[in-house]
Specification:
single chain, about 450 residues, alpha+beta, Beta-lactamase, 5-stranded antiparallel sheet, about 50% helix, about 20% strand
């Protein structure tokens, strides 16, 4: 009996320890970016993901897809590293990060590849796109076809270089798919992506990937930045038999982007060696770049001749939207942008056309507030503030009303006099005129106190 009890207790203890070890094997982490993903390229296993399906502009990581098409054309024999490319004026005028191409330059394809991979040259992307497909638009169509073939179901590209464009979005999951396919099919590209600097003509450009030479095993891949997304990075490192790909999108700064990517890679290799599982922590309050599921904002819109102000609440769609819902999300974003843009334009027009009117209203409100404050004004000063708070437009309006009242009273007196003359009582009419002035004249003499409401309804001059 005692032996059986000892066996039961021992078995219970073993099961408890196994369960405890399993609980401690999970490691909760958070990455200070809008979106992140870590993949073991050796077996395709996802080691960590955080908002991996949130739509974010890809920025210059787009160049990885452009380079994919370039290396594919080279492998198929349709393009060679020694082929010369004539630079067009459109390519030479492309803004953002530049390789330094000039109109009419003859540049080999091999140099343009280095300009795209190391310098992140937007001009080099336009030059190679025009050379391969005749136009940038035709090349972008090929990019989207290739993205569909690679399973990038939530990505849409509008430019070959990642410069801001309407409707251009991707996700961390799609960038991980692209990076994995790119490195598996063209591993020789890492000989260029691992270059820390590149010199074209007399200008030396440094690679924006700060992990090269600072983080163990890192030999690529591509950085990116636009204001709409933040700082992006698709990095890869190899240690032993495992090559990892870390994707971070929407970091608040270049330094945080490099730090968080390096930390993600370190935790990934640590999880492989210790058997721990990386999971996202439930508490996201430490993130400086949270992505709300749904939000709304109030927009003030001015319309009409009097520029009456109205408030409208605009609801923003959730950031994570599938490709099927991109049309609806784009329409919602367009409506929101149009509303905000018209709000800015209307506010500017209202300030320019009725600036005096608004200034008088603000001044009257502030002076009234100061007049009623017991800390700054005495009991007799509020009346002075109220008496002097009217604007020139209000005084002009009051004067106009007074003149109209006088004119009306004069006409009434003349009509009454004529009627009394017809009746044959001229002396009685004269006495009535001299005895008591019309009450309307007395009302016109007393000037009403102007108020903010009177100022508001006055039409702005000009």
């Amino acid at each position: 009996m005692l032996r059986r009890q000892a066996i039961v207790i021992l078995a219970f203890f073993v099961l408890f320890m196994l369960g405890f070890c399993r609980l401690t094997a999970a490691r909760e982490i958070n990455v200070n970016t809008r979106s992140a993903m870590l993949v073991d390229m050796t077996n395709g296993k996802v080691l960590y993901e955080q908002n991996a399906d949130v739509l974010i502009p890809p920025a210059s990581i787009t160049k990885v897809l452009t380079l994919y098409l370039v290396f594919e054309a080279i492998r198929d024999g349709r393009l060679h590293l020694w082929d010369n490319v004539r630079v067009s004026s459109r390519a030479a005028k492309t803004g953002g990060s530049r390789m330094g191409l000039r109109t009419g330059d003859i540049v080999p394809v091999g140099e343009l590849i280095k300009g795209m991979a190391v310098v992140s040259g937007n001009d080099a992307c336009v030059a190679i796109a025009e050379h391969m497909n005749g136009s940038v638009e035709a090349f972008v169509r090929q990019m989207n076809i290739k993205a569909d073939q690679l399973g990038m179901n939530d990505s849409t590209f509008q430019t070959p270089n990642g410069l801001p464009a309407k409707g251009q979005f991707t996700t961390a999951r799609d960038i991980a798919k692209l990076s994995t396919a790119y490195l598996r099919r063209y591993p020789e590209s890492l000989n260029i992506h691992s270059m820390q600097s590149y010199t074209y003509r007399t200008s030396t450009h440094r690679n924006a990937n700060r992990l090269l030479g600072t983080c163990q095993g890192v030999d690529g891949l591509k950085t990116g930045f636009v204001c709409a997304s933040g700082y992006n990075l698709a990095a890869t490192a190899i240690r032993g038999d495992h090559r990892l790909i870390a994707v971070v999108l929407g970091a608040p700064s270049a330094g945080i982007r490099a730090r968080e990517t390096a930390r993600l890679l370190e935790m990934g290799y640590d999880s492989l060696s210790t058997g721990t599982v990386l999971v996202r922590a439930l508490d996201d309050s430490s993130l400086s770049c949270p992505v709300p599921a749904r939000s709304s904002r109030t927009v003030r819109k001015s319309s009409g001749k009097g520029r009456k102000s109205t408030r409208t609440t605009v609801a923003e769609a959730p950031a994570s939207v599938s490709r099927k819902g991109q049309g609806a999300r784009a329409s919602v974003s367009k409506v929101a942008r149009t509303t905000v843009g018209s709000d800015s334009a209307a506010s500017t027009a209202s300030r320019s056309r009725g600036g005096k009117n608004l200034t008088a209203q603000k001044g009257s409100t502030s002076k009234t507030a100061r007049g009623t404050s017991p800390d700054r004004q005495s009991a007799g000063k509020p009346e002075k503030a109220i008496a002097t708070k009217g604007s020139s437009a209000a005084k002009a309006q009051v004067a106009a009303r007074g003149s109209e009242t006088v004119k009306t009273s004069q006409e009434a007196r003349s009509v009454r006099a004529k009627s009394m003359k017809v009746a044959g009582s001229d002396t009685t009419a004269q006495s009535s005129k001299a005895s008591s002035p019309p009450p309307s004249t007395r009302r016109s003499i007393s000037t009403p106190k102007p108020s903010p409401k009177t100022v508001e309804i006055s039409k702005p001059k000009g």
